[in-house]
Amino acid sequence: MKLLIEYYKMALQSIRAARFRSLLTMFGIIIGVSSVVTVISLGEGVRQQVTTQAGEVSDSLIVVRPGREREAKAFSLDSLRSYVNNNTGSLSEKDWRDTQKVEGVRSSVPVGIVSGIAEYEEREYSGSIIASTERLPVLLNQEVEFGEFYEDTASSRQKTAVIGRDVAEQLFEENVPIGKSFQIRGEKFIVIGVFAQQDSGTFAAINVNTSIMIPFDAARDIGGTIQLLQIYIEAAESADVSMVSQAVRKTLIENHAGQEDFTLLEREEALEATNAVFYQLTVFIAGVAFISFIVGGIGIMNIMFATVSERTREIGIRKAIGATNSQILGQFMMEATVLSLVGGIFGIGLALLANGIIRVTSDLQPVTTWQVVVIAAVISVLTGIVSGLLPAVRAARKDPITSLRSGI
Amino acid sequence: MAKKQQTPVISIEDVSKVYGFGDATTVALDEVTLEVNKGEFIAVMGPSGSGKTTLMNIIGLLDRPSHGRYMLSGRDVSRVSKNRRAKVRRDNIGFIFQSFNLLPNMTALENVALPLAYKGRTKTRRLKLASNVLDRVGLSDREYYLPTQLSGGQLQRVAIARALANDPSIIIADEPTGNLDSVSARVVMEMLSDIHKTGNTVIMVTHNPSLTRYADRIIYMLDGSIVYDEASAVGEVPSRVQRAVNALRQSDDDEKLANVSAMIETMPDSKSDDKPKKKRKYKKRKKAKK
User: Fold this and answer.
1) pTM
2) A322 and B62 in contact by Cβ < 8 A?
3) Which residue has the higher pLDDT, B234 or A383?
4) How close does chain A come to B23, measured CA to CA in Å?
5) Are the beta carbons of B231 and B2 closer than 8 angstroms?
6) Which CATH number fits domain B40-65+75-238: 3.40.50.10230, 3.30.1540.10, 3.40.50.300, 3.30.70.100?
7) In terms of domains, do A160 and A239 share one?
């Protein structure tokens, strides 16, 4: 330990003696660490937003999506839509109606996409027109900021709409266009509510900001096709979610002539799907990180080799006054390690700075956990050790006599 | 040779150093036998390529002999491991070089403290010790100067302080005044002389015969062998040395050739394949003459 501190001091001294070169050497590591930490922080931030959101939806939520298994787990509405287009939506309105009758179901909410474009004066808006029912905002954990959401009772056939912020700004060019009417397929709809800004962007299944939500019955009245992208089923508080899920599955299979061409996701499974995506993302980032650390490590190794041959005489002197081979080895290993560790620390600092800037300038909320910081530091150290090993061995093996003879 | 009664600090028996293989073999040291007692001040003289430096390297444990035995303070060190040699070197031997060999990015004090660091002394302890030694060479006011800020004489005094830092029993000085002006050289030599008087064994390689006046024993080397080895009173340059040097100056063509070949050998980028041949040729002639 005492020796290590000694090597550390020597390393600092020689790094300080060649500040500029050391900084250049560190750049590979700095950039690698900072980009990796930034991307992981972004991912973690998004993951936390998504899970928080999902967590606020009641635990009793079951999601039905068309198609089988994996593909149906795709969690953004856009990917789901293109998937449905290729699979001719296997969920029907009847399915939705029937699930409402299943025992233990508190409510069943359809998410249907209505074909059509919203028109207001001379402007058009081509966001998602979603046909749904009263409970949807509750299940999405989405607040209506101005006005109110339509109700399922008598008003449900009325042509009313609740729109996202983006729609308000783009189509109506004002913040609260309540009471204004616009047209879908030639039919007039009156805006009765505007959603609060949805922070997590498109990562939730439905991007509320760009959506126009209209009552399901009204949507059917104006004609055109309604594709059911998903059905949210809320189990009653007293009911067991998996029992309800089984019952729903049975009902749907009956409706589908014995075929299970849909997927049921319980909340946990839905989270799992989300987590699976993030896991893949993490693996990808880890790959990028690995490459950047290799590049950084090679940079350090390169400079260490140059340093060793440049400082041959110094090595000779040190050996002449009694440094053992292992002491020389330790000194150069420590130098490489300190270089990459300091690079790693700079990189982490840079990443925190970048995260701060991202927080201020965008909706994203990067979260840097201490684990990420520690892992980045540890990997930096390992990179230093690995890339310093060969140069240090070369330094340690130098013959003191020939080393002393070499010019400075 | 005086003081036979005690164990010699250095006892070298039939030590040879051979470089290269087969036809390219060079004999740098040819069965040298030498005993050095504690407290001696030895001046080693001889032309370039005579094996002085090789002998110093072996005594200083930077190199190991090809054959023969080397006892340092009664312990056989001719076959010990590199690590062991480094430790023995650290604890027993102080080097002073012609070109000072201080580390350029360290202050005088840090340079002097470096051997103590390898010994594992704590920082405060070794800086204190180093400061004491620097004071001993009269440079206590230059502790925080970098080598570039010091004169040649001062640099060599720092180097002497560094050699003394570990309190070694043997000081090896390879042409310590070779890069110095005469005034600085004198200061450095007086200092070495002082060190000698405090009981250290000093072995100094020099080309300058007048410096032998500081020594109490003079060794003259030629072609890897010790040709003269005699005691001399401190303060005088023995006549034999003078004569040897004069003889060298008036050498015949053969010896000039030898010196050229020796010079080539010491040149850093000489081709290794042409030096042994010349050397061998020269050796053969030498033997033929005998």
Assistant:
1) 0.66
2) no
3) A383
4) 22
5) yes
6) 3.40.50.300
7) yes
A401 in reach of chain B (CB within 8 A): yes
Cβ–Cβ contact A257 with B under 8 A: no
What are the tens digits of pLDDT across the range A150-180?
877 655 678 888 888 888 888 888 888 888 8
ipTM of the complex as predicted: 0.79
Please choose, from the candidates A101, A66, A98, the residue with its C-alpha nearest in 3D space to the C-alpha of residue A80.
A66
pLDDT at A153: 67
Q: Using one digit for the tens of pLDDT, what is the confidence trace for A26-67? A: 888 998 889 888 888 888 887 777 666 655 555 677 888 887
Please tell me the total count of domains within chain A: 2
Q: Does B48 touch chain A (CB under 8 A)?
A: no
- Tell me the average pLDDT across A270-293: 77
Among B residues 50-89, those touching chain A with beta carbons less than 8 Å apart? 57, 60, 62-63, 82-83, 86-87, 89
Residue A209: how many other CB atoms lie within 10 Å:
20
In whole angstroms, what is the distance from residue B232 CA to residue B240 CA?
A: 10
Could you tell me if B104 lies within 8 Å of chain A, comparing CB atoms?
yes
Residues A123 and A202 in one domain: yes
- Judgement on whether residues A116 and A242 belong to the same structural domain of the protein: yes
In a domain, A265, yes or no: no
Q: Tell if the CB–CB gap between A327 and B118 is shorter than 8 Å.
A: yes
My answer on whether A308 and A248 are in the same domain is no
How far apart are alpha carbons A108 and A96 in whole angstroms? Answer: 7
Residue B289 backbone phi and psi in degrees, to 5: -60, -40
Q: Kindly give the interhelix angle for A19-56 and A325-361, rounded to the nearest 10 degrees.
A: 50
Tokens (6 digits) for B123: 């920082």
- The domain containing residue A26 runs over which residues? 2-52+276-405
Q: Does A320 touch chain B (CB under 8 A)?
A: yes
Write the Ramachandran bin of B224: left for phi over 0, alpha for psi from -120 to 50, otherwise beta: left
Name the residue in chain B with its Cα closest to that of A315: B103
What's the CA gap between B268 and A402, in Å, rounded? 9
Tokens of A157: 């056939």
The set of residues, in sequence order, having a beta carbon less than 8 Å from that of B284 and lying 6+ positions away, is: none
Interface test with B, best of A7, A321, A405, A408 (most B CBs within 10 A): A321
Asked, for residue A67, whether it belongs to a domain, the answer is no
CA angle A376, A380, A384 (to 5 degrees): 170
Give the start-to-end residue ranges of the domains of chain B: 40-65+75-238, 251-290
pLDDT at A350 over 90: yes
The pLDDT of A90-108, averaged and rounded, is: 83
Q: How many CB atoms lie within 10 A of CB B61?
A: 27
Each residue of B54-89: pLDDT tens digit?
Answer: 999 999 998 889 989 999 988 898 888 888 889 899
- In three-state secondary structure terms, A187 is strand
